[in-house]
Each structure stands twice: as structure tokens, then as C-alpha cells.
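Hello Y.,

Per our agreement to keep a running log of every chain we model this quarter, I'm adding this entry. I've kept the format consistent with earlier entries: sequence first, then predicted structure.
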Amino acid sequence: MILYGDYHTHTRYSRHGHAKGTVLENASVALNKGLKQIAITDHGFNHIHYGIRRKDIPNLKDDILNAREVTGVDILLGVEANLISQMGDIDIRESDFEFLDILLMGHHKLVKMNSIDDAFKLTLANFGSPFSPSKERLNRNTTAFLRAIDKNPIDVITHLNYGCPTDTIAVAKLAKEKGTLIELNGKRINFTDRELLIMAEEGVKFIVDSDAHTPNRVGECNNAMNTIFRLGLPLSQIVNINKIPKFSTKRG
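Predicted structure for the entry above:
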């Protein structure tokens, strides 16, 4: 079983020290670990503290071209976009697709939301609650994710349920219909075994990623791999094991 690519890695473009490495460092580690392809997917533009700035995209593109030439690793330019409204809006503009090779999306804290109501109901309501979500909160979160998948060409939903619990199966079913992948995150998986097995039975497609914030973590997906083995998830439904995946986002 070979992991061909890691499609969720961060660099210093995720600002203020949130991630530590350069594009070249991530690519060099990928080369040493036998990966054929990686994606640089720094935090989306509306992240108040960690988000990449649009004005830095040309520099990121130059860094990617240089790292491709030095290492021979194919490198995709992406963003881990943020959910910014209950209506499923994300912090990506139409003009951004000119440079995007891959689009990831997940829920994050410290994000500039579309409205005060969105901030209260999607950010504050989910902020560090020790209690099981109410039916109202669960439905609200789920609806926001469903709308985001329906209205945006998202390639990958990252760390689903992390900090924002949803009806996992409902989200996964629509993701399958829309051609969106569900991430098996190398650091954390916030699904029950039963949910994963139901998703697999429904034919949902998964992608294994490291969510690396330092170069040494690129390609480190043991948590996800162990889960795949333990549950016997079909390798044919994991798009970056034994093959290179294709993404719907057009390459710039």
C-alpha cells in the first residue's frame, strides 16, 4: 500500500508562526518519503490570525515553481478555505480560481464571518463547548456544511466535525454526490467507527492527509492509516492510496 500524495500541508504563509516550514522544505521531505505529489494548502484569507494574504499568492506560486524544479515533486497550489456563513459561503472569490489547483474547506476559529449572527451561531456557539451539541446546533452546523458543498467546487472537506459537530452521514452523502472527498486526517479523526463504516458502505470517497504544520510531518498519516487497516475500509475508495487523484478545481 503506497501513499502517493499528501494534499493538506501548511507553510509559513499560514502567518504568525502557525506553520513553520517553506514550500521547498515540505517538498524535500515529501521527496525523501517517496511521495509523488503534495499540495500547499495554507489557511484561507478570512482567518484573522493565520490566513494567507492574497497579495502573497504570486510569491507562493514562485516558491512552488522553484520547489518543483529542485525536487521533482509535483506541487499543487491550494487553500484550506473557511466556512464563513450559515448560508454556506466560504472565503474564496471567483477570481481566486485562476491560481487554485485544489480547494479544501473546513471549520476554523478566529475567522472573519459574513455577519455578527454567523459569528454567534457558527463560531461562538461551537467554541469550546464541553457538552453534546443540541439538536438545533447540530442541524445549523450540518445545514451550513451542506450548503457549502452544494454551492462551491470543494475538493476536500477537512477534519469534519472538529470543533463543529455535524450529521456526519448527511454531509458525507452530499459530498459523494458532488464529488467532494472526506478527509481522513493524519492528526485527528472525529468520526465514530460506525459512521466511517456507513460512509464506506455508501460509497463515499476518502483522502488521507497529514495536515502538516511542520515539514517533518509531511506524509505522516499513521492515525488515518491505522484506522483504515483496523476497520478494513476499501482501498479503492481512498483516492491517494496506490494512485494519484484527480481534482475538479482547474489548475492555474
